[in-house]
Design a protein that fits this description.
- This protein has 223 residues and is an alpha/beta fold.
- Helices cover 32% and strands 18% of the residues.
- The chain is built from 8 helices and 8 strands.
- The chain has an 8-stranded parallel β-sheet.
- Bound molecules: D-xylitol-5-phosphate (DX5) and zinc ion (ZN).
- The site of D-xylitol-5-phosphate has 21 residues, from strand 2, strand 8 and helix 7.
Amino acid sequence: MKMIAPSILSADGSRLGDEITAVKAAGADWIHIDVMDGHFVPNLTIGPGLIASLRKATRLPFDVHLMIENPERYIDAFAEAGSDWITIHVEATGHLHRTVALIRERGLRAGVSLNPATPLVRIEPILPDIDLLLIMTVNPGFGGQKFIEGSLPRIRQAKEMIRTRAPKVLLEVDGGVTLQNIRTIADAGADILVAGSAIFGSGDYAETIGAMKVLLSAQTVPA
Ligand code: DX5
Ligand code: ZN
């Protein structure tokens, strides 16, 4: 079953708890939380303190996307804050395997992410040791950017790599997902679709997430 993970980066920051409650009622499967440090990406967002507060708003899985350098320093803090999934970037640490192991030792699921220009082979050695592979389809740092079209073959290749090497790994896609392209991205192999501006920028969350789910569940028409 394909899932939708609204990114609260595009939510109304003055009412984050209510926004989470609203997307949950609208059918969200996970809550995607973007953590940025102003070094790995040119933007700053939220930290473990706010995540711990938001934990009171819902029991939906928190999918925490760490766009921070040397994430190994903060795994304990994000685990204690109530994260369920923690995803780190291959470009952000020299200790990828150790950090993935640390996340799992804390009883959480571990994801690894690749920026658009990072070769897929970088995650090949670690694929059997992770729970989720996150393919960035924009350059990380900001919501509301356009999906990089060249990402579709990459998603297909990633899916094939997962199928042959580690079939339990979930494939997540993040960046520029809209009602117009969600079906194509899902058909390319994505299991979890992150969407920020497409959901929080829409007038009616239930209508948007509902339409996304209809598109995801529709049968492929045989060629
Ligand atoms: C970008 C973040 C994304 C972002 C997606 O760095 O990782 O999760 O919120 O936003 P949209 O869906 O608007 O591209
Ligand atoms: Zn993200």
